[in-house]
Every structure is written in structure tokens, then in C-alpha cells.
Amino acid sequence: MDAPRTPWRDRALVPVLVFLGTVVAVISSLGAPLVPTIAAVDHVTLSDAQWSLTVTMLVGAVATPVMGQLGDGPRRRPVVLGATAVVVLGSVLAALPLGFGFLVAGRALQGVGLGLTPLAIAAARDSLPADRSRSAVALLSITTVAGVGLGYPLTGLIAQSFGIHAGFWFGALISALGLLCAALVLPATTDREARPLDALGAVLIGLAVAGLLLVLSEGANWGWTTPRLWALAGLSVLLLAWWVRHELRTPHPLVDLRTLRNRVVLTADVTGLVAGVAMYLLMSLVTRYVQTPTAAGYGFGASVVVAGLTLLPFSVLSVLSSKVVPVVARRTSTAMVLTLGCGVSLASMLVFLLAHDQLWQVLVVMGIAGLGVGCTFAVMPGLIVNSVPAHEVGSAVSFNQVLRYIGYSTGSALCGAVLQAHTATGHRLPSADGYRTATLIGCAVWVVIGVVTIVLPRRAAAAAGGSSMDEELMVQESIADIAPGEDELPQKVES
After folding, report:
1. How many Å from the N-terminal Cα to the C-terminal Cα in the chain?
2. CATH of the domain at 148
3. What's this model's pTM, rounded to 2 decimal places?
4. Domain range enclosing 246
5. DSSP, res 383
6. What is the spatial distance between Cα 398 and Cα 56, in angstroms, rounded to a whole number?
7. pLDDT confidence of 231, banded at 50, 70, 90?
8. Alpha-carbon distance 495 to 473, whole Å?
9. Domain contains 495
10. Separation of CA 260 from chain center
11. How far is C-alpha 167 from the geometric centre of its chain's CA atoms?
12. Worst-scoring range by mean pLDDT, 110-124, 164-178, 447-461?
């Protein structure tokens, strides 16, 4: 039962939602630096140990749209609390020394928590006054980015000091604290109409995304030209096409794909997907580069703790970007913030391409990347929130989050594929040319998405013709979502 609303609960709602989102992001990244250690402790191959990270993304990609639809109705509070409880259970299961199978099962349960951030965004929009919800939505959007940067160094430090399972006990502790805080302050949504769950849509998107992510994660091990890999890819694409057809025909879709007809939503979703690729490509490159022994002719031979600490500037600057976004939006436009964010992220790739001989240079690279990615991700929820009906906010933002997860996995797989292609036969480490090639690909990705953020909104306005004023109002509303302050709020035009 929901506790009565009191002033202190209202004041605590945003900090609790941000804490919950950060906890989920930290837990989702717990497995990344521990893959070699898991392989050694549990006596499995590196490819098998990689599933301690992959399975979390797989489950998260499936759970996110389902939780988004359930959370759009009157069940948002029990969905959030139930999912957080599952994360606690998964953390405990992964922490217990029961063997590799139980660890993977625990990591799978932790993946359910990846669907909490879109629900937190919907809760902030519905429960807070307009002047507070705008900045809260932008801040919540970058918790997934900042949390990853925090999770890597925390994982390395805890595991190096107290052993592999200590990191998962830490995850159990902070997720249990998040569950307690959410139970105390999260409001109910009993005034919303319940909608039936699109079970077939959930199964289809789950199988399709799982298949595609499996192709990306196992391509290097199976071989990119093997028939079973292409068969799985083809089947996944067919399932995805079936899902699209089903979503367009069912009266209560898991994700209303018709919202993609709105160029603002389409821009946000395409940006989320492609920016996710470039973001994880750079993060994967940096963490591998700094740990490469100096005997290879490059790298710093750093420990996993130092590798994780190189991502701290990324987290700090991504959070601080929420202060930059309102200023830029007021002086330009929300669409321009997306483009500028892509430009700053491109600059980080160029700096890494030209200057990576000193550790401080890598820290600067990640700081610039955090500022660019933070600006880009902070804008997207505001664009979506003001472009879909209130009862579809959860599912629309969830779909954007799913696209980010797919982008993250693609960027990680792309890094591995490029570096593997530049690894000579019989050698363990790639040549320096592999990092150069992967960085150039990252530059190309940011250029492409930067062009998309310019061309797509302008083509939408041109195609609207007489409705161009509506497009401008939508942009103005999006600016209001990230730039709090009554003086900046645009005046609505009555129809």
C-alpha cells in the first residue's frame, strides 16, 4: 500500500529515483572488469565467462519494454518494487560461491533492473511539478551513463581488495537500500487505466533482440562467416519484422511504433541507438588500451582498478552536462543541443586518435566524451516526453532505452571485431593499427549521427508545410523539459 504523501516524501522522490537509476547502472556494469577473474575462479573459458556480462544486457533488453508497458498503468509502484527485489535476489545469487551457472543466473536476474530507469523517468514526469520534472527527467536520462563510469572502478577496487564475490555483495547491499528508499517515497498511480500486456509482442521482441545480441556477442567465437551465425541472424531479423507487423496491428502494442512517424521521436531513437554504439566503442577501447602491457609498444600496463578510474571523468562530466544543457538550449534549440553533443563526442574520438601516449591524455579524452554523451542523452527524454501521449511515456522511453542497450552491445562487439582483425596469428594482443582503425570508425559514427540530428528535424519541418508552427512548438516544449525556470517557459498557443 502506498504511504500518504508528505512534504519530505515529495522532496525525497527525485534523489531516490536518481539513486535507483545509478544503482541499476552500477550493477549492470559489475561483470565487465571481472570477466578474466571469473574465468580463472570458475574454471571456464573467457568466451563462457563473457556471458556474465552479456546475459544482463539480454535480459535487460527484453524486460525493459515489458516493464515500460506495465508501468504505464496503475501498477507502476509494484512493478518498480518487484523489479528492484528481483535485482536484490540476483545480486545475492551471484555473490554466493555456488558455481558459474548460479552466477550467470544471478546476473540474468540483475538484468531486470535495466528497465527501471524509464519507469523512474515516467514517475518524475507524473509526480512532480513542471518546474522540477524537467531537470529531473534530464538528470535521470544520464544516470545510466554516469553509473557505468562508476561501476567499473568500484568493481575493480572491491574485487582486487576483497575477492570476486565481494563486488556482487556490494551490489546486493546498494540494491536493497534502493528498494527500501523506493518503498518509502514512490507514489502510486491508481488513477491510470490498466492495459492488457502484449504478451506476443514481448516474446517476439525478446527473441529477436536476444538473437541479434547473441550474434554480436558470439560472432568472434563462432566465426562471422559460419552458417549457424547467419541463420540465427536471419531468423532474428524475421522475428523482428513479425514483431513490427504485430505492433502496428494490435490494439495495445508493447511499443507504439506509430510514434516513429513523429520526426522528433525518430530523431531521439536513432540518436540513442547510434550514440550507444559510439559510446561503448570508445569505452571498450580505452579500458583495453590502458591495460595493455607496455611490451606491446603501446598501452600503460595498468591494473583493472586504474582502467576503471580512467572512466571517472566520463561519469563526472556526463552529470555536469545537465547544467550545460539548459544554457545551450535557451540560446539555440533543443535540436541543436543534440548536434553539439555529437560534435563534442566526435572531438573526444579525435583527441584519442591524436594523443594517447600519456595517461592524463586518456583522462581528458574520457572527460570530453562524458560531456558530449551526457548532453546528447540528457535531451532525448524531453524530446520523447513532449511528443507522445502521457499514458505512453513509459513504453516510448523504454523503447529508446532498449535501442541504447542494443547500441551498447553493438559498440562492444565492434571493438572486439576490429581489434581481433588486427591481431596477428599466434599473437594475443592487437597491433596499434587496430586501435587507430576502431577510433576512425567511431569518428565516422559520430559524424553520421550528427548529420542525422541536423537533417531529420529540418526535413520534418519542411514536410509539415503549414504545420511547421506545430513543429516549432514541439521544439519549444522540449526546451522547457530540460531548461527549468519560469522565465524560460514558452507560452502555449491555443488551438
Report:
1. 41
2. 1.20.1250.20
3. 0.74
4. 199-251
5. H
6. 16
7. very high
8. 12
9. no
10. 20
11. 21
12. 447-461
